[in-house]
Amino acid sequence: MIDDELLTLPEIAQTLGMNPSTVRLWVREGRLQAEKMGRKWMVRRVDLEQMLAKQPQVGHPRGAASASSTPEDWSEHPERAMMDLASSAQPLGRIR
After folding, report:
1. What is the pLDDT of residue 80?
2. What is the DSSP string of 2-43?
3. C-alpha distances in angstroms, 92 versus 2, 6, 32, 66, 70?
4. Is residue 96 part of a domain?
């Protein structure tokens, strides 16, 4: 089931075009649920999707800053964030 797909914090940061420390801050603040698995923090895709749905202004398309002077606002197209995330993420495991 795709809801059980796990993502690392660096994968999320790369997909959203953000600094990995920003994603770690979301976890520390409790804005994004994550579990420590071994030495890595892992996030269920469904939890990331829920956070992005509640806060569609989070993140920006990769390369938008270099492509134009005014990056596209994902709050107008939150489905693009999920499509980009789905195309770049690798399935890492399942939550049991």
Report:
1. 58
2. GGG-EEEHHHHHHHHT--HHHHHHHHHHTSS--EEETTEEEE
3. 11, 6, 18, 31, 34
4. no
- Domain assignment present for residue 68? The answer is no
Q: Taking the model in full, what pTM does it have?
A: 0.59
Q: Which domain holds residue 36?
A: 2-61+73-88
Number of domains observed in the structure of the chain: 1
Write out pLDDT tens, residues 12-68. 999 888 999 999 999 999 999 999 999 999 999 999 999 999 887 776 544 444 333
66 is a domain residue: no
Q: Considering the domain boundaries, does residue 67 fall inside one?
A: no
